[in-house]
Every structure is written in structure tokens, then in C-alpha cells.
Design goal:
The chain is of the alpha/beta class. Helix content is about 40%, strand content about 15%. It is built from 14 helices and 14 strands.
Length: about 425
């Protein structure tokens, strides 16, 4: 086969100018000359990759097995890596300003792999609340079978409260003979949109653990990231995503991602290699497609959400809104101003009444789809207490503010006036 050109190294700069993530999504990590000149990366549907030599194969497996640090210096086997996955990882890391990134078969496989890599028997996990229900189940019901305990705190906790929680976690770890292994955050929280002060968490963690052995700080940034919040800048060390949501953005794939410090990514990668939770090549290719329009889609959805929430705010059948653009609590507003560059497009809508009134509203919607998930091109609405958080005990739901009149809404990229008309007629049915 004739050589069709010389591969070019991608650059993140032109002269002294740093290229923006929106620009880098169009080409970072890929050169058409490596694939017959194809403008877009092909889907690499192969289970394994040929080595140039036996010595190269040995070197690759030294990375895979942990004898050498870092990712394999080449392609080995599709449970470990692949061209489509590596290009996606390069581009996702750009959005968060991360050292590196790993992609997974779902958001929960990303979270599970991270926890299995960082948490050992008898360790303690400190986490904010509420968390996505499956995450809470994984920590409280599954990891607990292996001696792992948790201590949780409300999303809006102050520095003093955080100091007390970390001291309590350390005491529990000492009692069990383990360590405080991870501080896991979700901000904004699902489904209440409560914000965690990541800067305060980082300061409290550093004060409580002054030595080199510190629990990592990870945060689920699915609701706002990566456009409207970049938690690594506030002191988080790992950022977790359900890439199914805004990154995928078309409600046609399921995937997850973890970005962050190289040291921690290097610890998580071998676990992914072992248990096989990597994203498949076709899904990675679809994510590449989606990342090219991420900024456009999220910006339009955010603009629509502001218009819809402006209408809903004063509606007589609306009891309240959990929309970050209309925060009234001074503490939460302070966190928002320091951490976020936008209010997002997912919010909680509190209908006057209870489950019956909320169900009437949901059943009357014509444009918005009654479905779980968020961050797609279409508007979605669901009832967390009866759906995504049904497994959460009633007392905990009450403590977390997940009430029977809470409807979670994810605004899409439709015409905003049409969405307002749909919400208006649905509220008329309440």
C-alpha cells in the first residue's frame, strides 16, 4: 500500500495562542493520514492489534500489567485500549484541563471502577448527599459487603461541618483498621441541584490529612460539565461523568468517563483493564461526533432553560424551582458564583400538591418526553421519588428533599416558546 502522506502531530497552540476546546474537538488526537486520508476517524472494529515486534509486545504488556507506569505505548487489545477510545479520552481531558482521561461502558461502570481501584477492605468513603441513587446503592449496599463504610454530609455543608465529618470518618477508619480512602462529591446533586463547596472540601481535606497520604477528591460533574463547571480548578482531583448525558447529548448512547490527575488515572486504568469496563469502539466514535457540537448544544439548552424557568417561576401552580439561575440561598449563591459559569439546563420543578398533581402534569406534556436521563437534544421530564430514586428509603428521601411534588426537567434545544406553551398547557391539567 502506498504511503499517502506524513502524519502530523496535533498541536494545542498556534504560536502563542492556546486553542479553545471547541476548536480542539475537531481534530485533536487524530490525523487523517493515519487512516487513508479519512477526514473523520473510522470505527476500529477489531478485538486485537498486531505488534511490530516481539519486543514491542513485551513493552506494551509491561504497561498493561503495571510493570511500567502509564498507558500502553501502543495498541494491544480492545479490552485495554483502542484508537477511538484514545481519541475521545484526549478530547475529554481538554474540556476539564485534566492530565488524562478514561472512558467506560457507562457512568456507573466509571464510578464502580474508580471505587474498586481506590477503596480497600475496611476503608471509609466520605460523600456528599444526595447522590445518584445507584451510586448510593453501590457504596452503602454493595461495598459494605466487603467491609467498606461511609460517612455522608449534606451538599451545602460549611467548612466547620466538613471538618467534623472528616474527623468522624478518620475515627471510624481507625476503629475498623482501614483508612479514609475517598471523598466523593456530586454537585449539582441529583435531583435537587444542591451545590457542594469544592474549595471548602479541598481545604478541609488538606487540613485533616497534612501528610502525603490523602484521600482523593472525586466529583460527579454530570449536571453541569464540562461547559458550565470545571471542578479541577476548585480543587477536585477526579471528575466523573455519565457521558450518556450532555457529552453524548443525543440520547442514543450509554458511556462514562473519569478525568483528572495522572497519578490517580494511573491507579484506575489497571482496574479497567482487569474488569473490562472500557467503552466500545462504536460508542467512542459516536462520542467523537457529539463532542464537536457540545458547546453549541449546551449553550442553546442553557438559554432555553432560562426562558422556561422565567415563565415557571411565577406560575400559580408552581411551588418552587431548583434552578441554579434563581438561587435565593446566600450560601448556595456564593458557591455558584465561585464554581459555575452557567446555570445549566436541568432543574427541579415543584408542583403545588403531591404525586397525583405531578403525575397529571407529566402525563399532559406533549413536546417534553416522559423519560429518565438528561442532557439530550430533546426535553425530558421525570418523577425522581417514583422513578430514579424509588429505591431510596422514605426517610432518606425526606431528608434529602426528594419530595412527591418534585419533577426533574432537562431542557433540550427545541424552540423555547414552544416549550413554554407545552409547560403552560400541562400545568393547566394539574
Amino acid at each position: 500500500m502506498a504511503v499517502r502522506g506524513n502524519p502530523k502531530m496535533n498541536s494545542k497552540k498556534i504560536g502563542d495562542q492556546d486553542l479553545s476546546p471547541a476548536t480542539l474537538m475537531m481534530g485533536l488526537g487524530y490525523d487523517p493520514m493515519l487512516s487513508e486520508g479519512s477526514l473523520k476517524p473510522p470505527i476500529f472494529l477489531t478485538s486485537t492489534f498486531a505488534f511490530e515486534s516481539a519486543a514491542a509486545g513485551k513493552r506494551f504488556f509491561e504497561h498493561i500489567t503495571g510493570k511500567r507506569e502509564g498507558p500502553a505505548d501502543g495498541l494491544v487489545y480492545s479490552r485495554f485500549n483502542g484508537p477511538n477510545q484514545e481519541i475521545v479520552e484526549d478530547r475529554l481531558a481538554v474540556w476539564d484541563g485534566a492530565d488524562d482521561c478514561l472512558v467506560f461502558s457507562s457512568g456507573m461502570s466509571a464510578i464502580a471502577t474508580m471505587l474498586l481501584a481506590l477503596v480497600n477492605q475496611n476503608d471509609v468513603v466520605v460523600h456528599s448527599g444526595p447522590l445518584y441513587a445507584a451510586t448510593e446503592t453501590l457504596i452503602a449496599r454493595i461495598l459494605s459487603r466487603f467491609g467498606v463504610s461511609f460517612v455522608d454530609f449534606p451538599a451545602g455543608a460549611s467548612r466547620d461541618e466538613l471538618d467534623a465529618i472528616l474527623a468522624r470518618a478518620q475515627a471510624l477508619a481507625d476503629e475498623k483498621g482501614g483508612k479514609v480512602a475517598l471523598v466523593y462529591l456530586e454537585s449539582p446533586a441529583n435531583p435537587t441541584n444542591a451545590l457542594v463547596d469544592v474549595e471548602a472540601v479541598r481545604a478541609a481535606r488538606d487540613a485533616a490529612f497534612p501528610g502525603e497520604q490523602k484521600p482523593a477528591i472525586a466529583i460527579d460533574n454530570t449536571f453541569l460539565g464540562p461547559l458550565w463547571q470545571q471542578p479541577l480548578k476548585q480543587g477536585a482531583e477526579l471528575v466523573v461523568y455519565s457521558l450518556t448525558k450532555y457529552a453524548g447529548g443525543h440520547s442514543d448512547l450509554v458511556a462514562g468517563g473519569v478525568s483528572g490527575d495522572q497519578r490517580l488515572i494511573n491507579a484506575i486504568r489497571p482496574m479497567r483493564n482487569t474488569i473490562g469496563t472500557i467503552c466500545d469502539p462504536n460508542t467512542a466514535w459516536m462520542l467523537l461526533r457529539s463532542l464537536e457540537t457540545l458547546e453549541l448544544r449546551m449553550s442553546r439548552a442553557g438559554e432555553n432553560a432560562l426562558k422556561v424557568c422565567t415563565f415557571l417561576r411565577d406560575h400559580p401552580k408552581v411551588e418552587g424551582l431548583g434552578y441554579l439561575g434563581f438561587i435565593s440561598d446566600p450560601r448556595q449563591k456564593d458557591i455558584f458564583d465561585r464554581h459555575c459559569s452557567g446555570a445549566g439546563s436541568t432543574f427541579s420543578l415543584f408542583i403545588k400538591g403531591g404525586e397525583a398533581e405531578s403525575f397529571r402534569f407529566l402525563d399532559a406534556l406533549k413536546i417534553a418526553k416522559l423519560a429518565v436521563s438528561l442532557g439530550g437534544t430533546e426535553t425530558l421530564a421525570s418523577h425522581p421519588a417514583a422513578m430514579t430514586h424509588l429505591s431510596v428509603p422514605d426517610e432518606r428521601k425526606k431528608a434529602l428533599g426528594i419530595t412527591d411534588n418534585l419533577v426533574r426537567v432537562s431542557i433540550g434545544i427545541e424552540n423555547a416558546d414552544d416549550l413554554i406553551a407545552d409547560f403552560a398547557q400541562a400545568l393547566d391539567a394539574v
